[in-house]
Each structure stands twice: as C-alpha cells, then as structure tokens.
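Figure-free illustration: sequence to structure, shown twice.
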Amino acid sequence: MSWSSRAPSRRRWPLVLAGIVVLLVGLVIASAVYADSHDPARTVASAAPTAPDAAAAAGLVWLPGDVRWFSLQGTMVPLSIAHGPSTNDGVTASGFTHDPHGAVLAAVNILTRSSGLAGDESVYGPAIARQTTGDVSGYLASIRGVRAELAQRGGAPATVVVGYRLVEVGVDDVRLDVLSRSANPARPSQHALITGTARVRWLEGDWRLVVPTGAGRQVDQVPPGFTPMPGQHLAAG
C-alpha cells in the first residue's frame, strides 16, 4: 500500500510506517546490533567505552539557545555554535567537538544525512563515504535499495531525532540510543516513534558513524531514560 493512495487510518498508520522505516530502511536513524568485527578502523588505541555515571545518564547540559535546527529536505538537523558542526559544505556537516556533546550532534547529523531520508545520493553518498566507518559499501548499497522502495511508497517520512540516551561514553568511542519521530508524508499529523542505537568513533580528527548492521524498532511510548534533544520534545506528535 502506498502512502499516497488510500492512506491508512490514524490507528493503523504507525504499523505501516514501522514496516517502512524499521524493516525497509533498517539502517535509518539507529541500529540495535553492531558488528565491530566488520570495522577495519577499530584500534586498540581508542579509549574503552565505560558506563556513564548518573549525571551523564541523565543527559548532558547544553548552553541555552546554543542548538538550532535546520530543515534538510524534510528532515531536521541540529547545529550548535559551541559543539558543531563547524563546517557545512552543503552536503556534509563536520567539525564536531571531541566530547560527548559533539558525539551526540555528530551521530544525529550523520545518521540523518546518510539514511536516505534527507535526499538522494547527492546527500547520502558523500555522508556515507566521508563520515562512516565499517561496511561502507554495504551501507551504501542498502540505502540505495531503501530509496528505491520509498519512491514506490510515496516518499520518505519527515523525520527528526527528538531524544537521546547515553549508553557508553569513552574518550574516542560513544554509544547512545536515539529516539526519532517520523511523520506520514501523506498525512503529516500522523506520527510514529522509532528508537535504536547509534555508535560514533573519533577518527582522523572528527566523529564518524559506525555503520549500523541492524534495525531500529517502533515504540508506542517514550522509553525510560531518554533526554530531549535541545529544542525538541519527546512526545509523539
């Protein structure tokens, strides 16, 4: 069923969205499983991730008004004056601070730009090539398939990452859960929440997304422990 013809009812639509975003997109926004053995860039020199303390688990402290959001072909991406990205060439956004704040912002920016939801290959291609590590060619092939499938279903959902939950924090390696809100392009008032795990690693002077190898999942309500991204709220709609 296409979103653009005979759109499902409000009650049933989230299940359709889950089928598209979770099963077809799969790699979009988040992943529950990572295959570190497929990551040739993994090095023993990186600091081992450690469980965050109670303060970190409760969320980071952001400067008031520091983070602003910008539209990128229907999706939203954050920009912080203090933590990056400091460089935006119109396709990729880079130059994040080497700290948990920068890691969170990098994860959200790179996930969004590489997912296929923020535009065609002129957007996701460079993001994958320059800002991911792991099975890069496999990731690119998957997103190409995602884009073809979404085109047949009426377009990509309008998506924004609204929350995060730090899981493991190291100097050069950060893992976090992310919560995204996606809107039905045929009926923008209809929303669904998707959650999953992202991992970024500090390589060659900036954060890179470790290519996800699993899928996110749809949730009916916000899971415990999530903190809103600056300027966002956790509600489904």
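We now fold a second protein in the same way, so the two outputs can be compared directly.
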Amino acid sequence: MSEYPESPSAARRPMILTAILALVLTGCTGAPPAPEQSSAAVVRYKTDLEDFSRNLLDLGAGAVLIEARINGDVWSHAVGVRSVGSPDPAEVTDPTHIASVTKSMVAVSVLKLVEEGLVQFKDPVAKHLPEFDSLVKPPGPVTVEHLLRHESGLPSYEQALYTSRPMRQALTQSISPAEGLALATTMPWVLAPGSGSDYSNSNHLVLGLLLERLRGQPVAEILRNEVFEPLGMVSTHLMSTGTVPPTMVHGHVVVDGERLDSAYFGGMMGNAAGGVVSTVADVNTFYAALLGGQLLKPATVREMQQAPFGFFGMGLMRWVDVCGGFYYGHGGEGAGYRTMALNSADGARQVTIAITHPPESWDPADFDPVNPFGGEALMRAARTALDLSC
C-alpha cells in the first residue's frame, strides 16, 4: 500500500496483504508451534533472516535490508547493491521507499488532531473538508474514523489511474490528491461507509488534505515536525521534488519493454498514502515510539490498535502473535520496492524488511499472484523471526 501508486495486484483489490491477514487471523495454516526461548532461538532467527535474504538475492532481488530489535538486542543485515549494475554494495542504513508504511505515520498526525480536540472520530469528513461530499459523492456519511480504518468504501484511485493514461505517465508524473480522488469517483463505491473494511489508498489522500487544511502546512512539514524530527529520524522524509538521496537503494520497473529507475517517480511526490522514504532503523524507531506511548497517549494507541472488522486498525494492520495478542505494523508495496514492518504490541520485538525486487512489468496484464518478492513472503519471514523470540 501500499502504495507507490499501487501495483497492478493492488489495483485489482487493493492489497494482497488483506488475503494474507485473513489467512493468519483465521488460523487456516494451523496453530504455530510453541516458541523457542533460548540462545539457540536467537541464533536461529538471525540465520533464518540471512538465508531468506540470500535466497531473494539468488532469485534476482537487487537489495535486501533488515533490522531486528528483539528484547534489547539490535541486529541488522544487508545484501545486494544499491542499484542494478552498480558496484556499490547496499548498506542497512540506505534509504528506501517504505510505501504504505507511510499510512501509520500519517495516522499519528491525524490522531494528534483528535487529542487536541480539533477533530472527533465520528466527525463527518465534510465538516472539515466541505468540498468532500460534492467531490466524491459518497452513498452515506463518511467519518474520519472510516478513513483511518479503511471503512469508507471509497474506491482506491490507482486502478483508474493505470487505465486512464499510459503506464509510464501514470508512474512518473505527479498527481494531486484532488486528481486522485477525481479518478476514484470514476469507479463504483466498494461498500456503504462503516459496513465493512476494504483497503483503499484514497482514504489517505483525504486524510492528507484534512491535515493540510487544519494545520495550514504541507503534509511533508507536518510529518517532519510531529514525527520525524522529534524521534531523530534523520533519514526519513516525504518525497518531494529534488535530488535522490545519494545512498538510496534504487528499484526498477519495466514499462513498454524499457527498464526504468523508480527511485524518485513523480507519482509519489507528497503522497500521504505512500510517499515516505526511510530506513529500516528509522521505521523501527517510529513503531517503538508509537507503541511505547511517545507519540500518542496510551488510550489513543489502544484505539488505534482496534480492528472492528479484523484486519485494519487506524493506520495499522495486525497479525496474531504466537506469544500472545497481536503484532502491529504495516506492509508497503511500490514500483520496484517492498517493505514489511512487524512489531509486538509493546514494541519490544521488531523486524523491518525492505527489498528492491528484480525489474518487473507494471502492466496489470502481466500480474503474477505467485511472487517470491511479494508482501506475503516478507510477512512470513518477519513473523517467523518474532515468533521465535517470546
């Protein structure tokens, strides 16, 4: 959420991660074995993640970056190169696109508005954005909470984006939130607001507009002032015009038979649904601070973690934790990039994995649901590591 404008897979029903979550939460894979609690388990999770990264590299991944913070132990690992054909080795400190992990960060800033009394969860969006109803024509009132939990039913805009213009243009040209929402209105609403959950990037386009309206600043400045700078996340920013960070890992996609460098595609400039560039360490720092109560009040974090329809909290996804309760975090899928951040409820056990995958077609007709570089593979690797570390 994904994400970069979403991949073709997400455009068909915005997140493969929805299916992953259903599989995990319903227990279709069977109960996991009791976790090991020994030094051997520590060695095993590190070995498993190293093997996972080398396997992806053998299959053609450009780079794999991992940082785990487990019960006070910090371990990191990087393999591959910064860009296909480059001799420069990838470093674990290299910035990468985190795509829809952005949503957790934007949700924090929206929830700060709630804590300050400027917004209420049950407020109709049109109370703060009077143009909202006329722009998207919802079948019923859409609230701020609906947007945060993906319960609005507002279609995800990228399917219309990819079919309304050439793929190269869709990926490389900037698109404003209003333009994205106008594209969303060309598709039927997915569900009545509040009647269920369906992942949509359009929700966070609206939340970005809400933030800018009430704060009087661009989303990039809001995130920098409220999240990144207070936590010392010096390698994190919301994409904007400018030069690519010199140590950034570069993803690639294939469009019309040509390989394109996707490091700074225009489609994600300022995008509140998936435009943040960060490092695996900064992502772990963010979630540790969030779950530890440094960014929001404990009661707000608990509300954020609630998922009435099973999968989506407020800017968070959740998975069953074999050690008890749930893991929280988010996945991200962008053009040339994948990210998965998984955290225990108290933030004491964390794994973030980021990869650049082999150049692949971004044409929906070429979508292959069986993908060793997809979100499911990253989720399973991260979850296996944390399951060993109770």
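Summary for the second example: The longest helix spans residues 39-58.
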